[in-house]
Write a sequence for this structure.
């Protein structure tokens, strides 16, 4: 019981934007951060591995969805992506869907990214989870497709038929240096497009890698070039009052590493590093973000207001 309470107390969401080829924001991924009692960010891969091993990952996934719902009650987003372990979908599907449905009830598009943290032994069970989520009205993505996981093989994509395929960042970077890896990546992208899936390239952190991602068939891109993960709690809720929507008396991200909580109050999306041709494209695209995302999107001129109007 103590372990379960600690999981719920130490999780906080941060958000990173995903852009399409024309630099219009398409969604925000809610990324898990694990904070210890001293306000330090813990190693996420190790923590997730331990939660998977000890049967706590479902609690973490559901806690994250509930916290994302609290954030979106303060900052209105048109779309949000949340991560889910296959174990959560297989063993806690009704409970998880009930939590997701509260997000969708606020007229928010919900993308469920099935993580690569569990080996795939039964493609049929994975397909059943994908179909079940889609039947409930959610968009389904496979996260971190790469060479050493089943998500990185065209045969699985055809068998499972996801809406979105996310290319693992290190896999993408390796493909820029190695011809054999590049051919495998391009084959995976072609397979995803053949089933009508949107392809997202992760770890796009330079203008050159952005151009290469487009050349390799990226539909959407995600990475530090476009925006680092940021807390979206409004400043009044992050710093004042006895209790925040995430349940912490004091927001641990205020005391965590500066690379996570490096933001201004108006939550400005990171801008290009230099006034290049590419940079001009991003500036132009940012001005189109609001009209591309529907009336509920509060993003204007590349900025997220500190609170919903």
């Amino acid at each position: 019981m103590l372990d379960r309470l600690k999981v719920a107390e130490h999780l906080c969401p941060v958000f990173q934007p995903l852009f399409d080829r024309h630099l219009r924001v398409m969604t925000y991924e809610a990324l898990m951060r694990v904070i210890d009692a001293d306000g330090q960010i813990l190693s996420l891969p190790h923590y997730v591995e331990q939660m998977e091993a000890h049967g706590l990952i479902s609690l973490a996934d559901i806690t994250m969805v509930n916290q994302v719902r609290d954030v979106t009650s303060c900052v209105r987003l048109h779309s949000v992506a949340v991560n889910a372990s296959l174990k959560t979908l297989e063993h806690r599907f009704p409970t998880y869907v009930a939590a997701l449905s509260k997000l969708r009830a606020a007229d928010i598009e919900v993308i469920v990214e099935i993580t690569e943290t569990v080996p795939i032994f039964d493609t049929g069970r994975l397909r059943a989870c994908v179909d079940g989520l889609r039947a409930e009205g959610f968009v389904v993505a496979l996260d971190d497709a790469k060479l050493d996981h089943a998500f990185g093989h065209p045969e699985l994509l055809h068998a499972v038929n996801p809406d979105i395929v996310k290319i693992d960042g290190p896999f993408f970077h390796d493909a820029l240096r190695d011809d054999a890896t590049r051919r495998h990546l391009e084959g995976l992208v072609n397979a995803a497009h053949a089933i009508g899936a949107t392809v997202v390239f992760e770890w796009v952190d330079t203008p050159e890698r952005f151009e290469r991602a487009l050349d390799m068939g990226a539909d959407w891109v995600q990475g530090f070039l476009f925006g680092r993960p940021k807390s979206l709690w409004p400043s009044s809720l992050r710093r004042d009052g006895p209790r925040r929507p995430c349940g912490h008396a004091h927001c641990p991200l205020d005391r965590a590493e500066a690379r996570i909580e490096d933001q201004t109050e108006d939550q400005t999306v990171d801008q290009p590093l230099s006034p290049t041709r590419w940079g001009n494209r991003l500036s132009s695209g940012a001005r189109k973000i609001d009209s591309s995302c529907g009336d509920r999107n509060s993003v204007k001129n590349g900025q997220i207001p500190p609170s919903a109007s």
